[in-house]
Each structure stands twice: as C-alpha cells, then as structure tokens.
Amino acid sequence: MTAFQDEYPEKFSHCFGCGKSHPSGLRLKSHWDMEGNPIDTIVSVTPPEIYSGGVPGHVYGGMIAALFDCHGTASAAAFACRAEGRKIGDWNLPDSDLPPVRYVTASLTVDFLRPTPQNVELKIRARLLMIEGRKIELEMTLMADDLLCAKARMLAVRFQEKGA
Amino acid sequence: MTAFQDEYPEKFSHCFGCGKSHPSGLRLKSHWDMEGNPIDTIVSVTPPEIYSGGVPGHVYGGMIAALFDCHGTASAAAFACRAEGRKIGDWNLPDSDLPPVRYVTASLTVDFLRPTPQNVELKIRARLLMIEGRKIELEMTLMADDLLCAKARMLAVRFQEKGA
C-alpha cells in the first residue's frame, strides 16, 4: 500500500523521521487505518534501540514527540485531501498542475501517560478534529500493544509557497 | 563546569538526548545561564546533520521537541534543588543519604515559530514558572543566533521510587 509519505514531492522528502529520500531515517509510512477506523490514520514503528530514555528499556521522550510530529503532518495532508475530494498524490499524476498538499506543525502538545517500552511495535493513530482555512487540528494516540502510553494534539498549517 | 546531567544517578543516565552513559547520544549539558540571566538555565547544541527536516537545511521537528524535553527535565531538577536550598548532585556526595532529584515530563507543548536552521549552534533556555508539590511548570525558548525559532511549555513531575 502506498503511504502518504511516498507521495511527498521530492523537495519535502528529506525528513529524518519520515522522508523517503533520507539516507538513514525512520521512513515512517502513514496510512488510513483500514483495519481499525478508516476515518483515522495509523503508522506502525519499532523505534531503533539507540533512542533509549534515561532508564534503559524505554523510548526517549523526544522520539515519541517526533513520531507524533511526522505522523501528524502526514495525516493533516491526508485529511485535507479527503475534505477536498482529492486523491493523495494527485499532484504527481502525469500532466497534473495541482499544487502538492503539505502541512507544517504550528503547535504540538504531547501528554506522556506512562513509560513507552522499547522493542515493541508502536501504533500511532490520528483523528481529525477541525479544518478551518489553512489550519487543521488533530489528536493522536500512541499505543504499545494494548497500553495507551502517550497522546497528543497538533495544530498544523498548510504550507504555502512564497508568492503563491 | 559540571552540567546538571553529569549529576544524574547512573540508572537515569541512558537517555539518547542527555544521558552521560549513552554510547552515541547527544549528551546535552545544561547549566545555569551565567552569561545571561542566572535564574534561568541554558543548553547549547548543534544537532547532527542527520536530523534533517523535510526540506534540507532545517532541523526536524522531532529533534526540536527532544531538545526541549531533555533540557526541560534537567532544568526542573535544578529549579527544585534551588528551591529546596540543595546543591545539584548532593545525593552523590560521600555518605549522602539524600534521594536523587529527577523529573519526568507529564506534558510538553512546542510552538514552532519558524524553520530552525541546521549547522548553527542552538541555545535553549528554560525559566521556572511554578512549583507546586511534585509538579513544576516551566517555559523555554530555542534561539538560532538572534532568531527565536521555537518556544515550549512543560509540566514536569518529580520521579518517585515505587514504595517511597
């Protein structure tokens, strides 16, 4: 299945967390949550062991925030495309003159509810809360197996080329 | 100058962002801001180039959140020690039976104000807002040269050994 990030234009594809063109990043792959609630989005990832928290065996807080950040902006683009009746990546179709849809984070709040274990596949889900002009608000959860370890809320803003 | 993180007990020293015992982490070193406002804390860091944002030349959002997270919890411990008239690391003195002072993040909000450039030394400062029981609230800024690129607010909670 093509992930949202697979459709990012090349110039936006160098993020350590989710860029397909980053030589050694995490390359997160976000999708619609077809096995759960398909109005939501999901990404699954087992962060490399190097990203330990202070006490070994736990994922460090910065990595958790990073996962929310990358999945959140990918999801914002997907939610915007859905709301506009567009297909994600339609800007890559031959002869398309549609502008790419990309969002950047304006504000991210992460609530750390319990330590997040290492060496477990984490599932991060996003749900759309609000679209208003260039702004999108969404909420996210991070689960390790059946444990809710962290949640987040993001305000993302549509990227606009200067002069556009 | 001894950094706050140099005084962490060994069991808390394995964080990718700030642990002195992490084999390849960032090893952030937070201090009182003696060249600025000494009631605040500061850490200086030039994040490795691998942590690129989507568009090359910018630090990725997750790394920015990580810097705030590590500097914030270190600063919370320093603010608590100061408020209690304790010296940071007094638990490491010979014959000390004082418990170590460590904080964990309950909630972190990051406002991304503008892209943060790579290959520039970043300065992250923290200021105490409130101490109430086990809770500390603080606010932070991230500067790249004279540019304010991001700010944050953290609620940190004092770590308590189970059964203590």
Oligomer: homodimer
Helicity range of chain A: 10-25%
Largest sheet of chain A: 6 strands, antiparallel
Average pLDDT metric of chain A: 94
**Which residue ranges of chain A are poorly predicted, with pLDDT under 50 across at least 5 consecutive positions?**
none
Structural class of chain A: alpha+beta
Task: Provide the β-strand percentage band of chain A.
Answer: 25-35%
Coarse morphology of chain A: globular
Name the pair of protein chains with the most residues at their interface, and give those residue counts. A-B, 40 and 40 residues
Q: What is Rg of chain A? A: 16 Å
N-end to C-end Cα span of chain A: 32 Å
Q: How many strand segments of chain A?
A: 6
Q: Tell me the strand order in the biggest sheet of chain A.
A: 1-2-4-5-6-3
Order of helices and strands of chain A: EEHEEEE
Helix count, DSSP H or I runs of 4 or more residues of chain A: 1
Description:
The structure is a homodimer of 164-residue chains. Chain A is globular and about 50 Å long. Chain A has one helix at residues 61-83, and strands at 31-32, 41-45, 103-112, 122-132, 135-144, 147-158. In chain A, strands 1-2-4-5-6-3 form a six-stranded antiparallel sheet, with helices on one face. Chain A is α+β, with helices and mostly antiparallel strands and 164 residues long. In chain A, strand 1 and strand 2 form a beta hairpin. At the A-B interface, helix 1 and strand 3 of A face helix 1 and strand 3 of B.
